[in-house]
């Protein structure tokens, strides 16, 4: 599907983000410096230590760029004031100014030692943010230290909270996941949040950026049945820049179980050719999401080889194909595949859903939205 509306929006983001990138690259902390800590998961290595891979984003908000982009969208789409406010909130990560070449530290909440942790890169050095404000690395905790922190925080289901300590504002969460147990791997769009992707790009853009989010009927209740016993991983083709909007809606507002997020990388430093490739593929390349999801799910399953898995997705895009491909290599680990059928594939394309439990859902019609 060629997403012409996404092309317009990504072009607008490229223009506004490009203005800020070229005008004022940020290499030191400012008064509005912020950190997004994406929910992380930790596993035990062969020495019994907990390793916690982490991804963070360092940035400054740019109110003027948010206003400009919102004004462009409001004129293009004839937005109401409420829709314009939602749009501005949801594109903040796309038009923010990224902070490069920064080291970020944090402390675990309630830690009497107030120990400062830094992400370590593959070379064992402190990780620095790249030109897109992203730093990836890991920290390690001894089993005794992890137990101490969980007791101090009265941890529920292995979750630990921490707060930025490096001149930024921000806080995050990480879950220490046992080697054995049940893990739920879930798509987001049209699986647990109504996006209506088969309806076409115009409707997808409105549901993603302008309209109030709506959760898929019955799915929150189903997920809550596993909430006390399972770890949750939300694997989505949406870009990381929508993480705050999606996680706030799903976890804080709607009550889906807390989990880690695994999303699509879209670089936005326009001095880098890879950023232009990412923007182009976001708008035009369906296969990039297929490949992204297989890679991220494979990584999770290899990190936790002794856990059992339930996959949950929808029929509107390629979730059945993604899960079928993974099942070929990991059949013994997969307890169940559940597909929310939004295009009547159970009758029109039953071969796609072979060996999967199907949840009948409202059929999405091209060009038509249930929201009018």
CATH C-level class of the largest domain: Alpha Beta
The name of the CATH superfamily of the largest domain reads HAD superfamily/HAD-like
CATH level-two architecture of the largest domain: 3-Layer(aba) Sandwich
- Quick one: overall form? globular
Quote the CATH topology of the largest domain: Rossmann fold
In oligomeric terms, what are we looking at? single chain
Pairing-aware structural class of the strands and helices? alpha/beta
Describe the model.
- The chain has 12 helices and 15 strands.
- The protein is of the alpha/beta class.
- It starts with a helix and ends in a 12-residue tail after the last strand.
- 42% of the residues are buried.
- Residues 1-5 and 19-27 have low confidence and may be disordered.
Give a short synopsis of this structure.
The protein has 2 domains: 4-176, no CATH class; 181-360, 3-Layer(aba) Sandwich (Rossmann fold), CATH 3.40.50.1000.
Secondary structure topology:
Layout: H1 4-23, E1 33-37, E2 40-44, E3 50-60, H2 63-77, H3 81-90, H4 92-95, E4 97-98, E5 105-108, E6 117-118, E7 134-141, H5 143-152, E8 159-164, E9 171-176, E10 181-186, H6 201-210, H7 219-224, E11 230-239, H8 243-253, E12 260-264, H9 273-284, H10 287-303, E13 307-314, H11 319-330, E14 334-341, H12 345-348, E15 357-360
Main features:
15 strands; six-stranded parallel β-sheet; 372 residues; nine-stranded mixed β-sheet; disordered N terminus; alpha/beta; Rossmann fold; 12 helices
């Amino acid at each position: 599907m060629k997403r012409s509306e996404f092309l317009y929006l990504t072009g607008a983001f490229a223009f506004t983000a490009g203005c800020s990138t070229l005008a004022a690259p940020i290499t030191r902390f400012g008064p509005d410096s912020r950190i997004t800590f994406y929910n992380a998961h930790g596993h035990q290595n062969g020495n019994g230590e907990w390793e916690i891979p982490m991804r963070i984003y360092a940035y400054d908000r740019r109110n003027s760029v948010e206003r400009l982009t919102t004004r462009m969208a409001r004129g293009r789409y004839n937005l109401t004031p409420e829709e314009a406010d939602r749009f501005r909130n949801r594109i903040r990560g796309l038009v923010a100014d990224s902070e490069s070449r920064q080291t970020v530290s944090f402390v675990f909440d309630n830690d009497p030692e107030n120990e400062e942790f830094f992400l370590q890169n593959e070379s064992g050095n402190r990780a620095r943010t790249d030109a897109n404000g992203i730093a990836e690395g890991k920290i390690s905790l001894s089993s005794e230290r992890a137990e101490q922190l969980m007791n101090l925080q009265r941890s529920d289901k292995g979750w630990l909270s921490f707060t930025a300590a490096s001149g930024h504002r921000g806080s995050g969460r990480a879950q220490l996941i046992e080697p054995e147990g049940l893990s739920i791997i879930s798509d987001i769009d049209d699986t647990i949040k109504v996006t209506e992707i088969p309806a076409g790009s115009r409707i997808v853009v409105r549901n993603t950026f302008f309209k109030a989010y709506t959760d898929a009927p019955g799915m929150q209740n189903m997920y809550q049945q596993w909430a006390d016993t399972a770890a949750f991983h939300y694997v989505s083709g949406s870009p990381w820049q929508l993480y705050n909007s999606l996680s706030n809606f799903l976890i804080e507002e709607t009550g889906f179980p807390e989990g880690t997020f695994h999303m699509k990388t879209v670089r936005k430093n326009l001095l880098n050719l890879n950023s232009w490739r990412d923007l182009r593929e976001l708008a035009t390349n369906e296969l990039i999401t297929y490949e992204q999801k297989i890679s991220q799910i494979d990584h999770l399953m290899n990190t936790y080889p002794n856990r059992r898995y339930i996959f949950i997705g929808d029929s509107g895009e390629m979730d059945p194909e993604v899960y079928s491909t993974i099942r070929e290599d990991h059949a013994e680990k997969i307890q169940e595949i559940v597909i929310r059928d939004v295009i009547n594939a159970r009758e029109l394309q039953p071969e796609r859903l072979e060996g999967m439990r199907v949840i009948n859902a409202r059929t999405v019609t091209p060009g038509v939205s249930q929201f009018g």
